[in-house]
Design brief:
Length: 624
């Protein structure tokens, strides 16, 4: 018998807090609690992954402040988020206040790091503020991060009046550039200790240091803003001209425009306290970190996350995209949800049911997963119910439906159920017929029947609905077993009729009611849910944040709390979610049972989408 090989996450022990921010072009996943940018990244279709610009022993970019010639530390920052997304901090001194605002204006290939100093004292004061930087590494990430062996190059670009940086592996691979809201000629700047137009070339792994700052004298009550504009592109001239474009718009206009966009798009627009904040924050995080535009082709791609802090980042899973991220995106931007569906029909369709794909849709990690094959149709169903956009259902959708029906038959087993090779945790199954996966087949057939009916194929639609009902009856005949709390759904069965009592949060039996397979009042379903949340379940975790877990990650799953919010004890689940630290308020795979802090799978963007969706639904049900 082949050994069961698992690919599981490592436990997270870091104590640093991060405030990720980004847009469709650029992500700053490691903006830390001291205001330092440890890295930022772009997505490259040519490289089939993420290109990261990083520091190492020193941060890539760190704010700097001195008052009356005395340098000020950044260890006591007070953080919040503007419009539930834009990181903002304050540093209060005896006679000054420094504010920092870091944002990535939607539609632009860059970011703005704004510092504003205010003299709160009684006498005139002199200040120097700006940034110090150390670009040491350029890395590639698809699952894991690894360092490029090319060269990092920096110089002053006289044409655009910016500091410009390019990573070359022979020819340029990616580039970035920075400028200020003041002309550099009026400021202090240096690259490797010099002001020169000559290129400074460093092997990756060697620090390329630079700084930009400005000195000002302020009267009591006066303030002074200084903005750093950063931009990215395929090569240096493109990056530096994108900085010029940001400068022409100006930080104030960019910030106001971006805040207006966020206010329009956020799922919860009225004040609903921490619940609304978590819903909006996780919605925006999923929106900008589970999808991106490629820096080289300008094509949109989907991924589980574009943060290197997640253990398998910058890659595509159909389940993650269509069952988890999609519902959250749909609340925020139906047009983006439509794009998700289009990408599933085109870029990702050929390999949709395979475990994991590169961002361009080619195969990365083989292994058939039945839930992933069905996931696109479940997303389509949600989209049609929310928007009524039946104009989307064209011949390509019909062809995809026919293709799905054909692929399913190849996995039909002797029991009349459908097999899978990997479970929703992406690990090998013990028994091939999963109850949850087969329930998704029923749901997918119901959706395809609607498509066929819409196309005038009434008879075929009726036949498919009968087939779905017959499969449901077969599941109930084969997959219901006697459990310690009464008749319940088994996790899986095999051809010999043996059953497995188990549950896995990424494809929990709790979702049978969510996807319409049965009602929440069904006694077999109720027994199943009670078993999942009891000590009879060997993977149930106890503690302040008790929740179901699984072998893949034996800690409370955030998804489990989402299901409880949607389908179970919503008040208890809400209490836990509001108290949990998560990954500094952003969804992660699992949390510590006692502290509620991230345990595995930090910066989990697709899970953030489902958390946002679950909170949105809970708020709609709850009284104001």
């Amino acid at each position: 018998m082949t050994a069961k090989i698992l690919t599981v996450p490592e436990t997270i022990r870091e104590e640093m807090l991060y405030f990720p921010v980004g847009n469709e072009w650029i992500a700053l996943p490691e903006l830390n609690q001291w205001g330092q940018v440890e890295s930022f990244n772009v997505i490259s279709e040519h490289h089939k992954g993420m290109v990261e610009f990083r520091g190492q022993d020193e941060p890539l970019l760190a704010p700097f402040l001195s008052v009356q010639g005395q340098r000020v530390g950044f260890s006591q920052l007070k953080w919040d988020r503007l419009d539930d997304w834009i990181p903002h901090f304050q540093l209060l001194g005896e006679d000054f206040r420094l504010e920092g605002t870091i944002f990535c204006p939607d539609g632009f290939r860059g970011f703005v790091y704004l510092l504003r100093i205010t003299n709160t004292g009684q006498t005139p004061l002199s200040f120097t503020l700006g940034w110090q930087a150390s670009w040491e590494n350029t890395a590639f990430t698809a699952f894991r991060t690894r360092r490029s062996l090319g060269h990092n190059v920096g110089w002053y670009n006289r044409w655009t009046r910016t500091l410009t940086f390019e990573h070359r592996t022979g020819l340029p691979a990616a580039a970035w550039s920075v400028g200020l809201s003041e002309p550099l000629a009026k400021c202090q700047w240096e690259i490797q200790g010099n002001q020169t137009e000559e290129e400074t070339i460093k092997q990756t792994g060697q620090p390329l240091r630079f700084s930009l700052h400005q000195s000002v004298s302020l009267q009591p009550g006066a303030d002074y803003p200084l903005a750093l504009y950063g931009a990215v592109n395929r090569e240096a001239d493109g990056a530096s001209t994108c900085v010029v474009d940001l400068q022409r718009h100006g930080w104030e206009s960019l910030l106001n425009r971006h805040r207006a966009w966020l206010q329009k798009k956020r799922p919860v627009k009225e004040g609903r306290g921490r619940t609304g904040y978590l819903c909006n924050l996780n919605g925006f995080y999923s929106y900008f970190f589970a999808r991106a535009k490629c820096i080289d082709t300008e094509n949109t791609v989907l991924m589980t996350t574009r943060s290197p802090r997640y253990y398998v980042s910058a890659a595509f899973w159909a389940r993650d995209a269509y069952l988890w991220a999609f519902p959250g995106v749909l609340h925020l931007d139906p047009q983006a949800a439509r794009e998700y569906l289009t990408l599933g029909l085109t870029r990702y369709w050929r390999n949709l049911a395979n475990h994991a794909l590169y961002i361009d849709g080619t195969e990365l990690y083989p292994g058939f997963e039945l839930d992933e094959l069905c996931s696109w149709f479940i997303a389509l169903d949600g989209y049609l119910k929310e928007t009524g956009d039946w104009g989307f259902v064209d011949e390509k959708v019909v062809q995809a439906s026919e293709d799905c029906l054909g692929k399913l038959e190849a996995w039909r087993g002797e029991l009349g159920l459908y097999k899978t090779f990997l479970s929703p945790t992406d690990d090998p199954v013990d028994y091939p017929y999963l109850t949850y996966d087969n329930a998704l087949v029923c749901k997918a057939w119901e959706v395809i029947a609607q498509i066929l009916e819409h196309q005038g194929q009434t008879h075929r639609a009726e036949q498919l609905l009968l087939k779905s009902e017959a499969l449901k009856e077969r599941i109930q005949a084969v997959c219901i077993t006697e459990g310690p709390l009464g008749p319940m759904y088994a996790w899986a069965v095999n051809d010999d009729g043996q059953v497995q009592l188990l549950d896995q949060p990424p494809g929990s039996l709790q979702l049978l009611a969510h996807y319409g397979f049965c009602s929440q009042d069904d006694p077999v379903y109720r027994n199943t849910v009670a078993w999942i949340h009891s000590n009879h379940n060997p993977d149930y975790t106890t503690g302040r944040f008790s929740a179901p877990a699984c072998e893949h990650a034996p800690y409370p799953w955030v998804l489990s709390l989402c299901y409880e919010l949607l389908l179970g004890n919503a008040e208890q689940a809400m209490e836990k979610l509001l108290a949990a630290k998560l990954d500094n308020d952003i969804a992660c795979e699992t949390i510590d049972a006692q502290t509620g802090r991230v345990k595995t799978g930090a910066a989990f963007a697709t899970c953030a989408g489902f958390l946002s969706h679950s909170l949105f639904v809970a708020l709609k049900r709850a009284p104001n």
